């Protein structure tokens, strides 16, 4: 009984550990490696499906009156853009490629859009799902502008156009946000009994996200373990995401506190879509910089786990 209680309290940490152990076992035990090579890509294909389902479930709880833009939505876009611009300047001032690699890691950790799973965590923490949903739509619009603007400045050979970035973001917004939101709103109108039943299953979306997190940890471990960088660079690329996670969560909460939404704003700026970050890095930047978003996903979910524990124990978030 104690083990079950521990897993329920620290589900995200258990998902991180489980995903890491499974990856290590299936890559280092020779007899299991072929099975791991086969099933790994299959699990990755489940990521968008699970995100779709968990957002549909979460959006069924949405309060329509809250679906309006807030001032903090735009303030956080300004902060995110400023941080990205500063990291681009710092990287371009570096003459040593190693230091530029580190700044690319910083860059990708700040320019990443908010994780699609953020509304699930906000719901668990008692924040406004609707407000964060509006923020996600705004943030993705900004992403389609700042990615083609900043990436060629960060990496001269980055071949990414405005149209490419816009399509990438539009496709993700439609499949991951707009369609489940539309279905959820239709369900509330035409299937109220089903929605009422769904609301009684409080943790389905959260456990779907935990399953996704285990898969993402496998991807993260693959990038970390296979990166041929020196020891001090690896340590630096592991520590910097921790500092960035603390800073971005704190800055988001500080801004949100002024507008009565510290929970949503903290998750909005701090909880990043690291899968997109990893893909962008591997596609357009120094691929070894992908270590940073891989490690960021660990730190951000440790922060989420601590917040959830505090909320569960005391009934509210102090910060």
TrEMBL record:
Keywords, in A-Z order: Membrane, Transmembrane, Transmembrane helix
Where do transmembrane segments lie in this chain? 12-31, 43-62, 74-95, 101-122, 134-154, 160-185, 206-225, 231-249
Q: Which InterPro entries match?
A: Na+/solute_symporter_sf
Protein name per Swiss-Prot or TrEMBL: Sodium bile acid symporter family protein
Organism, as annotated: Segatella oris F0302
Instruction: Write out the coiled-coil annotation as residue ranges.
Output: none
């Amino acid at each position: 009984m104690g083990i079950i209680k521990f897993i329920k309290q620290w589900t995200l940490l258990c998902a991180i550990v489980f995903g890491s152990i499974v990856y290590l076992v299936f890559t280092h035990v020779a007899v299991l490696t072929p099975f791991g090579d086969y099933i790994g890509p299959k699990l990755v294909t489940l990521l968008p499906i699970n995100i779709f389902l968990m957002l549909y479930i979460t959006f069924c709880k949405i309060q329509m009156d809250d679906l309006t833009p807030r001032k903090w939505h735009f303030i956080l876009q300004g902060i995110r853009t400023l941080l990205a611009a500063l990291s681009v300047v710092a990287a371009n001032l570096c003459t040593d490629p190693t230091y530029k690699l580190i700044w690319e890691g910083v860059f990708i950790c700040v320019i990443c859009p908010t994780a699609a799973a953020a509304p699930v965590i906000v719901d668990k923490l008692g924040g406004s799902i609707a407000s964060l949903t509006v923020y996600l739509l705004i943030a993705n619009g900004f992403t389609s502008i700042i990615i083609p603007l900043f990436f060629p400045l960060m990496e001269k050979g980055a071949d990414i156009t405005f149209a490419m970035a816009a399509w990438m973001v539009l496709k993700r917004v439609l499949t991951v946000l707009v369609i489940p939101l539309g279905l959820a709103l239709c369900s509330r109108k035409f299937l109220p009994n089903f929605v009422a039943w769904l609301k009684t299953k409080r943790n389905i979306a959260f456990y779907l996200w935990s399953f996704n997190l285990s898969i993402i940890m496998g991807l993260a471990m693959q990038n970390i373990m296979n990166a041929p960088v020196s020891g001090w660079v690896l340590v630096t690329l592991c520590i910097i995401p921790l500092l960035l996670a603390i800073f971005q969560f704190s800055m988001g909460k500080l801004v949100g506190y002024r507008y009565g939404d510290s929970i949503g704003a903290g998750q909005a700026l701090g909880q990043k879509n690291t899968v997109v970050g990893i893909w962008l890095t591997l596609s357009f930047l120094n691929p070894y910089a992908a270590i940073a978003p891989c490690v960021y996903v660990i730190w951000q979910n440790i922060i989420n786990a601590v917040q959830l524990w505090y909320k569960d124990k005391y009934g509210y978030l102090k910060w």
